[in-house]
Amino acid sequence: MGKVYMRLRVMPKDVEVDLEALKEKVKEAAPEKVEIADFGIQPIAFGLKALLVAAVMPDEEGIGDRLVEAIQGLEDVESVEIEAQELV
After folding, report:
1. Belongs to which family (predicted)?
2. Phi and psi at residue 65, to the nearest 5°
3. What is the DSSP letter of 44?
4. Number of H helices, E strands in the chain
5. CA pair distance 85, 75, nearest whole angstrom
6. Element spanning 7, H or E
7. 35-45 sheet: strands from edge to edge
8. pTM of this prediction?
9. What is the pLDDT of residues 6-50, one digit of tens each?
10. What is the per-residue pLDDT for 73?
11. Exposure string for 46-72, b = 16+ CB within 10 A, e = fewer
12. CB-based contacts of 47: which residues, under 8 Å, 6+ apart?
């Protein structure tokens, strides 16, 4: 079975959200078998920054959706968008 690389853009609810704390919450929320490989920060506008999340997971049906749903369910998250997804 292969692995899937997924890059997500996580938009916080407002500019006051601590992105360092959000990184920890994302790591904790990730389903079993999902490895959070890296984080980045992308300036958006007016002081708002997006959290970029790189994750590697087995090529199993629904595991990417579970990751997105878990992150979307976090208190400080406004939205989650899949920017890239590829088989590695």
Report:
1. Belongs to the EF-1-beta/EF-1-delta family.
2. -65, -40
3. E
4. 2, 4
5. 25
6. strand 3-12
7. 35-45, 48-58, 3-12, 77-87
8. 0.94
9. 999 999 999 999 999 999 999 999 999 999 999 999 999 999 999
10. 97
11. eeebbbebbbebeeeeebbebbbebbe
12. 15
* pLDDT score of 88: 87
Q: How far apart are CA 5 and CA 19, in angstroms?
A: 22
CA dist., res. 44 & res. 79, Å (int):
14
∠ CA 28-5-24 to the nearest 5 degrees? 20
Which tokens go with 72? 């979307």
The phi, psi pair for 84, rounded to 5°, reads -155, 150
Rounded distance, CA 71 to CA 24, Å? 11
Domains of the chain with bracketed CATH: 3-87 (3.30.70.60)
Whole-number pLDDT of residue 78: 97
